[in-house]
Write a structure and sequence with these properties.
The protein has helices spanning 15-35, 80-94, 109-122; strands spanning 3-5, 11-13, 61-65, 71-73, 76-78, 99-103, 127-129. It has 137 residues and is α/β, with parallel strands linked by helices. α2 packs parallel to α3 (109-122). It contains three helices and seven strands. It starts with a strand and ends in an 8-residue tail after the last strand. The protein is elongated, with a radius of gyration of 22 Å. It has two domains: 3-35, no CATH class; 61-129, Nucleotidyltransferase, domain 5, CATH 3.30.420.270. The strands form two sheets. It has a five-stranded mixed sheet with strand order 5-4-3-6-7. The chain has a two-stranded antiparallel sheet with strand order 1-2.
């Protein structure tokens, strides 16, 4: 049923168009899932001062550091070398881009500093930190 007969007797193969539609559906599902891929276990620190980001730069990469010091991007746990490789590859393709560090409020500073050192070694200097402006009751 993938073929449709025209009036002139020519056949039109619909299979490539169906393949493209399925590829688009998969692409949109994957990109929507990436936006929701944050670690729910990370409890952010409260910050009364500082800017509120309503429309962050779409090039921003979010790096999470949990209270055990584990580093992750989109809930994928990374070691230091893998993070450095990812950041270097992206920097070579895009140039500088913003980084948002989401660290648990009980994370040791040395673990956050490790991520900052990797970013600066690659050449990334736009680093922000996520915090909660107003605590939820």
């Amino acid at each position: 049923m993938s073929r449709k007969k025209n009036v002139d007797g020519c056949e039109l193969d619909m299979t490539p168009m169906i393949d493209v539609v399925f590829q688009m559906i998969i692409f949109f599902i994957v990109t929507i899932k990436m936006d929701e891929n944050i670690n729910e276990e990370i409890i952010l620190e409260n910050a009364k001062e500082g800017p509120v980001y309503k429309d962050p730069d779409p090039r921003t990469i979010v790096i999470e550091v949990d209270k055990r010091g584990w580093i992750s991007i989109n809930n994928l746990q990374l070691n230091d070398k893998t993070l450095r490789d990812i950041m270097l590859n992206r920097f070579q393709r895009m140039g500088t881009f913003p980084v948002m560090i989401r660290a648990d409020k009980n994370t040791k500073h040395k673990d956050v500093r490790r991520v900052m050192d990797i970013c600066t070694a690659v050449g990334i200097w736009r680093i922000d930190f996520a915090a909660i402006k107003e605590p939820k009751n």
